[in-house]
Amino acid sequence: MASKPSIPKGTRDFSPAEVAKRQYIISIIKSNFEKFGFQPIETPSFENSETLMGKYGEEGDRLIFKILDSGDFFEKSVQNYVGEKEFTYLNLFLYTVLKDIFSEIIFNRRIDDFEKMIIDGYLTKNIFRVYLRNQKIRDYVEKYLKDNQIFFKEWISSLNQTLIDNNRLDIKSFDTDFDNFYLGKYLNTEKSNEFYESLNNANIKLYDDLNSKSLVKNISEKALRYDLTVPFARYVVQHQNEIEFPFKRYQIQPVWRADRPQKGRFREFYQCDADVVGSKSLWQEVELVQLYDAVFTALGLKGVTIKINNRKILSGIAEVIGASDKLIDFTVALDKLDKIGEEGVKKEMIEKGISENAIEKVQPLFNFTGSISEKIKQLSGLLTSSAEGMKGVSELQFICDTVTKLGLKESILDLDVTLARGLNYYTGAIFEVAPPEGVAMGSIGGGGRYDDLTGIFGLKDMSGVGISFGLDRIYLVLEELNLFPETILATSKALFINYGEKEAFYAMQAITKLRAVNIKVELYPDAIKVGKQFMHADKRQIPYAVIVGETEMNEEKFALKNLISGEQILVNFDELKNQLASS
Amino acid sequence: MASKPSIPKGTRDFSPAEVAKRQYIISIIKSNFEKFGFQPIETPSFENSETLMGKYGEEGDRLIFKILDSGDFFEKSVQNYVGEKEFTYLNLFLYTVLKDIFSEIIFNRRIDDFEKMIIDGYLTKNIFRVYLRNQKIRDYVEKYLKDNQIFFKEWISSLNQTLIDNNRLDIKSFDTDFDNFYLGKYLNTEKSNEFYESLNNANIKLYDDLNSKSLVKNISEKALRYDLTVPFARYVVQHQNEIEFPFKRYQIQPVWRADRPQKGRFREFYQCDADVVGSKSLWQEVELVQLYDAVFTALGLKGVTIKINNRKILSGIAEVIGASDKLIDFTVALDKLDKIGEEGVKKEMIEKGISENAIEKVQPLFNFTGSISEKIKQLSGLLTSSAEGMKGVSELQFICDTVTKLGLKESILDLDVTLARGLNYYTGAIFEVAPPEGVAMGSIGGGGRYDDLTGIFGLKDMSGVGISFGLDRIYLVLEELNLFPETILATSKALFINYGEKEAFYAMQAITKLRAVNIKVELYPDAIKVGKQFMHADKRQIPYAVIVGETEMNEEKFALKNLISGEQILVNFDELKNQLASS
After folding, report:
1. Does the distance separating the beta carbons of A523 and B287 come in below 8 Å?
2. In whole angstroms, how far apart are CA B108 and each of A567, B129, B561?
3. CB-CB contact of B309 with B416 (8 Å)
4. With contacts defined as CB-CB under 8 Å, which chain A residues touch B409?
5. Is residue A54 less than 8 Å (CB to CB) from chain B?
6. Tens-of-pLDDT digits for all 583 residues of chain B?
7. Contact B433/B350 with Cβ under 8 angstroms?
8. Are A437 and A303 in contact (CB under 8 A)?
9. Are B226 and B122 in contact (CB under 8 A)?
């Protein structure tokens, strides 16, 4: 391989420094998940395709990475493809073979070797080169030909007789004559046209079906997971008898999407999900808001906004404006209030077909400010006529009141009625987390409640609620705000300089003892120029060098050099140990 | 979906208890890797196919999971497949079309609509239904037909003239006549036979090429990684300018193999690798033996045997027995010494074609016992005549002597000349770790030195040495020997019983404060029957319940119940906190 190797687009290598930063975020998320009573599970990277397909909409299906079946997938595909259609294909085969025999007889007035012509000649006929690989069909065809040898011989002699009788067949009506011979006279099929047509259609279909959509089912039965929610739902249903409900699980694993890569969007990325399944209690929502606050506080990320909304409130608004099909248009337009102003928003709504009368009814949403409880009060007035909407108001009220009374550490809770994230599957609370003001970045977390999480796998009435952390975006935000701790990279405390075999052995004795008390130290492996060894320590950001020449060995001492200050002291082993342990 | 969902064979779901145990092993491996100066990297789950293919032998290639290209892979495949063969396929197309026109003229004496016949009729001709999807070919064909309309009209009128002249063509020689028309007369091709044959061959090839091996290149350009070594080599070459050598990296990530699943063998499993690249120093080997010892000691696994050998010693033996091609047979047979005895082994060797004379020369290997230094002395006598062998002896001597002098904690170092693991790529030390005696399990770790780790990617002379831990097998061994700590599962310390909204709020205030000081506690989310809540705590193995009814609320107290002893005490918040923190 001459060219420099590379990795697939949308994927990443992580250097030690990057892994350290990612692990720092993950470990904080993890410890908080556990503090809140969530327990880890892991599911396989790939699932059966039927588990994933059809769960994310058409666009989602397209973005799922499919895994080619191992072994001879194409052969298997051919087998599967025609497996149940032997008879159709046999007929198609016979029709073609016999038509060629017919033509041979008419043009050449003879057949030299009937069997050879059928078996050798026509097995290689293009259209059948693929399909006759199918052993089942091949067996079927060969058996059929053998079983019907007498019939075919009769057929040919009858054909010959006709040729003799007529001197020759009328070539103008070759097709018709043949069909009469093949169908009418010898197969005794009354509906010859229908039969002919079905053969022709089968043939055309054969080629039309050779496309990705039909092939993928035959050559791929596994796919990389697209998110952690569907595998979790599958897990719950599959292990329902072993699980103690309500089940609080977290899962931190990579997922894969064949999306167009762009800034902050990758084809392989981690999801960090915490979900509770099996309880409708709104205390879960309260705790999930607290969990967001706990994680971001621990990460030193102050002032994130945890936005909350409720699907039932959106339904209520739809009821009030009398156009549930316009709900998305409505929220999208309303979301632009800051940018284009009240008149702009109203103009856009009217353009989208929402009546002025409807817009009038929800006028308060255009001045939707104040504390959460003030906002809830406004909503309550607005949605009086909608039972569903009022249920949403009461849910929101409990969650927001409780969270407020319990207090958040560093985050802000806010009610955002334009929050319509995942409208299609959430049924209650909807969450989204925005980074602190001034950071140009989309949401760094999101979630919500779905009343029927596991229904798709046949376990009904299992309510679930969960949140997710966007690892990659959180990484970028911490980087931008310079919030990663300095000491995050797990470098060694000291590099022992290698002066040769004897000195190295002396060093290694000390290293072995230091490691036994969990102090990270290293020996430079080769006795190269000392300057180069120091440079190595510098580049690796190792803070100390330990110098052991013959003098130090004889005195049973170690020269410990602080590579930042340049200061060097002579110490015995215990002093060395204490110095490195405390630094 | 009616049937219970499942996961692909060879994959696993991990329950919280299993994740905890796996994480326990991984965290010990990880902390020891870091203690020894290794730094983590991560590489993508899938690599470009060209990075992986051809690196693991034919069998390995077969076991690599390939990922279907996203988008319309089959369409792309068709495009790629015929992309460079437009002219051949155009000719094939024209030949077929014109032959049909010829036949039409001969049989019907006229063509109603030449253009329609070509464009409509023949675009749907079966053989072209697939290939004319290729836009490039389609454009080419259509342009060709348009550009040559005058030519075709002349062709047809000439054909008509011939028909008129001869009254009719001789149908017996239809093919020859057509070829004369098509090739000889109108395309001015002298080598008509050759041309015809090439068309025919192209057509046949088309179908024969429709198989997995040819298709896979067109429909899959990515594959799941098969191990961590090749991606690491790729990483080193790709990032060579950012890496400070010698580079000590570790990597703990899943790999995938389409192997037949069996006990302890999965299609998705973790590898835990530590490698040093960029130094030939034997101190690395010494440290890797120490690293094995450190990890297994930390896991409480006493008495594992770290077996060591050297590729150069094996080469030396091959030299001495004068049959380097018989080396594997030799080591396989010798490995059976315990089972079938000296005579049995010798018999097998002779059957495999190793001469009695050769066996005589390595007689000491049949009584190869004693301490490592005794064994090395025997090898030294045996291999005197082989320079390569003696280099292996000296390497082994340094490693074993040094390790012995530095001392191992719980493991046994042993020299095993039958160790031939990875014979094809290791060039120096070879390691393998056997579980403690009495545990029926294969090796739980292995590794070695390969002098040219990155050569496959174009970076020469980069020596690497590394070891790997077999997570799944270590798990099974710890399970069998009951070595997992009791307290491994991260359950909550206490479950607060839910008596209703007011009480729950009182509880949640305490919970919030407890979590703030990192104590894991939970509220049961619903105010259901108390007995059921206690049962939940029991099933979740939560050791305490906190009971807060109206009495406790009024007194600002908490009833703390030890669920194992049944003991219950009334405490204030600080007492509660101290009790849970210390338990």
Report:
1. yes
2. 105, 26, 100
3. yes
4. 516
5. no
6. 456 899 999 999 999 999 999 999 999 999 999 999 999 999 999 999 999 998 888 888 889 999 988 766 656 655 554 434 444 445 555 666 666 666 666 555 555 555 555 554 444 444 444 445 556 656 666 666 666 666 666 666 666 666 556 555 454 555 566 655 554 444 434 433 444 444 445 444 544 555 566 667 667 899 999 999 999 999 999 999 999 999 999 999 999 999 999 887 899 999 999 999 999 999 999 999 999 999 999 999 999 999 999 999 999 998 888 877 888 888 888 888 878 888 998 999 899 888 888 888 888 888 888 999 999 999 999 999 999 999 999 999 999 999 999 999 999 999 998 887 666 678 999 999 999 999 988 899 999 999 888 988 999 989 999 999 999 999 999 999 999 998 787 789 999 999 999 999 999 999 999 999 999 999 999 999 999 999 999 999 999 999 999 999 999 999 999 999 999 999 999 999 999 999 8
7. no
8. yes
9. no
Other CB atoms within 10 A of residue B275 CB = 26
**Do B93 and B123 contact (CB within 8 A), yes or no?**
no
- Asked whether B111 and B105 are in contact (CB, 8 A), the reply is yes
Distance CA A221, CA A82 (A): 18
Q: Pull the structure tokens for residue A37.
A: 């009573």
Nearest C-alpha of chain A: how many angstroms from B348?
35
Which of 390-449 (B) contact A at CB < 8 A? 402, 405-407, 409
Please name the residues in contact with B415: beta carbons below 8 A apart, sequence gap of 6 or more.
B307, B308, B309, B372, B375, B376, B396, B400
Q: Which residues from B are below 8 Å from A207, CB to CB?
A: 126, 129-130
Cβ-Cβ pairs closer than 8 A, A with B, add up to 320
Could you write out the DSSP letters of every residue in B203-252? HHHHHHT-SHHHHHHHH--EEE-S-SHHHHHHHHHHTTTT--SSEEEEEE
> Does any CB of chain A come closer than 8 Å to the CB of residue B42?
yes
Side chain identity, residue B435: P
DSSP, collapsed to helix, strand or coil, labels residue A286 as: helix
Contacts of B129 in chain A (CB under 8 A): 204, 207-208
Cite the beta strand spans of B59-201 per DSSP E: 66-67
What is the C-alpha to C-alpha distance for residues A256 and A269, in angstroms, rounded to an integer?
A: 7
Q: Tell me, what amino acid is at B174?
A: F
| ipTM > 0.90 (yes/no) | no
CA count, 13 A, side-chain hemisphere, B421: 19
Residue A418 distance to chain B (closest CA, Å): 29
Rounded to 5 degrees, φ, ψ at A198 are: -65, -35
φ/ψ of B66, rounded to 5, equals -95, 145
Residue B66: how many other CB atoms lie within 10 Å: 27
Residue A549, judged by CB atoms within 10 A of its CB (0-12, 13-18, 19+), counts as middle
What residues are paired with A306 via a beta bridge? Answer: A413, A433
> In A487-564, which residue ranges form alpha helices assigned H by DSSP?
501-516, 530-539, 550-555
Nearest CA in chain A to B235: A13
Q: What is the DSSP letter of A259?
A: P
Partners of B222 in beta bridges: B48, B67
Sort strands B39-40 and B247-256 into parallel, antiparallel or unpaired: parallel
Task: Say whether B457 and A5 touch across the interface (CB within 8 A).
Answer: yes
Contact yes or no for A518 and B35 at CB 8 A: yes
CA A194 to chain centre: 47
Token pair 């309880």: residue: A279
A246 vs B: CB within 8 A:
yes
**What six digits make up the tokens of A379?**
């909503």
Q: Note whether B6 contacts A: Cβ–Cβ < 8 A.
A: yes
Output the six-digit token pair for A14.
């992580």
Pseudo-torsion of CA A502, A504, A506, A509, nearest 10°?
-140
Chain A contact present for B287, CB below 8 A: yes
